[in-house]
Amino acid sequence: MDFKLKVWRQRGAGDKGAFANYDAKDISPDTSFLEMLDIVNERLIAKGEEPFAFDHDCREGICGTCGCMVNGYAHGHQGGTTLCQFHMREFQDGETIWIEPFRAKAFPVIRDLVVDRGAFDKIVQAGGYISVRTGSAPDGNAVPVPKDDAERSMDAAACIGCGACVAACPNASAMLFTSGKIAQFARLPQGQPERIDRVRHMVAAMEQAGFGACTNHAECEAACPKELKLDCIAQMNRDLIKAALVK
Amino acid sequence: MELDARIPEGPIEQKWTKHRFNMKLVNPANKRKYTVIVVGSGLAGGAAAASLAELGYNVKCFCYQDSPRRAHSIAAQGGINAAKNYQNDGDSTFRLFFDTVKGGDFRAREANVFRLAEVSGAIIDHCVAQGVPFAREYGGLLDNRSFGGAQVSRTFYARGQTGQQLLLGAYSSLSRQIALRNVKMFPRTEMLDLVVVDGRARGIVVRDMVTGAVSSHAGDAVILATGGYGNVFYLSTNAKGCNVSALWRAHKRGALFANPCFTQIHPTCIPVTGDHQSKLTLMSESLRNDGRIWVPANKGDKRSPDVIPEPERDYYLERRFPTFGNLVPRDVASRAAKAVCDEGRGVGKTGYGVYLDFRDSLARQGEDVIREKYGNLFHMYKKITAENPYRVPMRIYPAIHYAMGGLWVDYNLMSNVDGLFVAGEANFSDHGANRLGASALMQGLADGYFILPYTVSDYCARKGASKVAEDHAGFKGAEAEVRDRTSKLLAVKGERSPDSLHKELGKLLWEHCGMARNETGLRKCLAEIPRIRDEFAKNLRVTGADAELNQTLEKAGRVADFIDFAELLVKDALERKESCGCHLREESQTEEGEPLRDDKNHAHVAAWEWTGGLEPKLHKEPLKFEHVALVQRSYK
What we know:
The complex is a heterodimer of chains A (247) and B (636).
Chain A: E1 3-9, E2 18-24, H1 33-46, E3 69-70, E4 73-74, E5 96-100, E6 109-111, E7 114-115, H2 118-125, H3 147-157, H4 164-168, H5 175-186, H6 195-208, H7 219-223, H8 231-245
Parallel strand pairs in A: 1-5
Antiparallel strand pairs in A: 1-2, 3-4, 3-5, 6-7
Chain B: H1 15-22, E1 35-39, H2 43-55, E2 58-62, E3 80-81, H3 93-103, H4 110-129, E4 155-156, H5 162-179, E5 183-186, E6 189-197, E7 200-208, E8 214-218, E9 221-224, H6 245-252, E10 257-258, E11 263-269, E12 292-296, E13 313-314, H7 316-320, H8 330-342, E14 354-357, H9 359-365, H10 367-385, E15 394-403, E16 406-407, E17 420-422, H11 440-463, H12 473-491, H13 498-513, H14 519-539, H15 551-575, H16 599-602, E18 604-609, E19 617-622
Helix pairs in contact in B: 2-5, 2-11, 3-4, 4-11, 9-10, 13-14, 13-15, 14-15
């Protein structure tokens, strides 16, 4: 297959950046999107040109490192997938593909398609944990957890922290990301003691990092490669209201 | 050099308890005077950094990823073993210990493995308390599944994302300590050298991968938890960034490298489709609980699997190993797959694949049950291959997955370099010549949560707090060497990319030092590696500059180390003339073609010393088996 690529090139946060044109010829349909980028980059190196930088690591859809906007969709148009598991067979032969970094005020561009998602770490540091010291835990079966609760907690815990939700949101809101962690713990007995403080602190950190607010577009849910649901955000908002009523 | 494993005296079940009691303690108020450097933020590194910080030490943690949450532990799918015996099926600490020593084909240290089994239960307790959403039964208690090499159900899991959930648990504890300022985190930072001052590991030199700035970090102890070196084969199930550089740098500063030829080949990966392939994707071993592995009974049978009738299918694992069936250990399953493919009975376009078929389980349990157990794995398989495993059998083939070898460590997980600790996949200690499924997560977390916090504390207490300044000549010299190496890589200005050289190296190794090894092939490999090294030195092309984000430069540095390391790996494979675990020497097989161990000559750990570029020097740590009888492994 042959493609025409329009790739965002930007040397650093201070640089303005622009699209550059590249040809991607003779690409097997079984090639993943990132492997297609590898091939184009190898050809650039062969010509003595600088390859474009993009983030990636596990290439099996779980580490959350990769991600770009592809034709305006975070991780591409397939849905329920990360860029590394998105394959070129999903495109038409000869198609023009626009590739841009995830764009948000809280995600400054480092270079080309690489952005700084450190703001997500800050949100977790604000309260995305259960305070338990190593060595102090009771037996694993001491507290039964109803199967449905465990399953719903796992649904929320599936987040890989890639940032697609932020990139897809017109407000660049990080509510799906933040609420995933809040919902994971809210649905487990272990998460109850710190539940109120957790939602307060994590939401405050989210706002401080420069993410926008949710206005129910649900673009995040559509873009999430792990298919987190808006009910996480509903859960977070409920807990936030409760927090306002508790001292 | 004498290798002292420092195994405590006394009966095996009391060693760890007694050893902990004999340890020196640091006064709580004094702990903050000690700085511990942790390289790597996966299960072992993340857990160690968080736990040491909870104790009060001042911790600096480094990772090459943009966040500690992304370490490759995250990709482990199937589960984590623990001897809880919640199933009432006869599990015990001793049985987990026994299974692990036997599964490792008797090339692990008994005392270390026993301790691993001993602390395994506490890991589950801790992770549950952290809010890890493990799978549950209807009564609300923890569920288990079975894994290869064991006849009890002792594997705890969180769907097919157990590694992710455990890592996020460690990451959450680490995040809490970062917020409390007990840990200073350095993401997008790569360790490029170890600094040894007066025989003691005193710190590291790192490169900031965004700015290119080189800097030094001094401490009282250094922990390397930098994972495995499977990417030396280029194609593996490891993340693209996984590399051997931190271990290789430490090796060149004196740390012995143990058993580098023990590289695990995982039997259930998605087969290679073409030259564009950048990595291989694992399908969890847990699938072997419900999937049946088969190939056509007849050579060259290219019919679609659904029309091949039952008598013309060969369920070769069930046929050859009736007791363990599809759940034989990984090395056994991998070799069996290679054997049927070499006979010309492989499936798929390339003929290098076997079926993993869920037809019977789907009929027996229904699609909903299978979806609940393996939904994300089936989903992933479909994404990659465009085939629906609910309708057609999966195609799988073995791939490089895990490194049992690593830096040599003693019972305290300290290398032969004073103050240099090594944890998780990066050390060699617990899995012998073959790791059992769901034991990597157990070992990483055991090292990080329950062993290093004790042994590093003891080390600090014995040494007392003392500082070596970061402008000490040792640091400045190492920094200069790092800068020099980088500028040399940029100065070659040849024509070949680091990736193209890496692929060439990987192909060579896979061919001659992969699933089966023999002297001729290994010697050929040794003859070829210097040619690749030479090509690298003369014809490498690194675009861009040093003082910026430069992914080509990062790769070049890692490939340089892979080339040097590959030579050691092959030498080790050549030296180990027996077959054991994952390491099959074709010269050493029984008449039935089963691997044949040679306990008389090879019941030892091979620990290699760097000699400044001359022939590496081999040291042997003899392995004593007092609790598990040395027998030829049989899963029949």
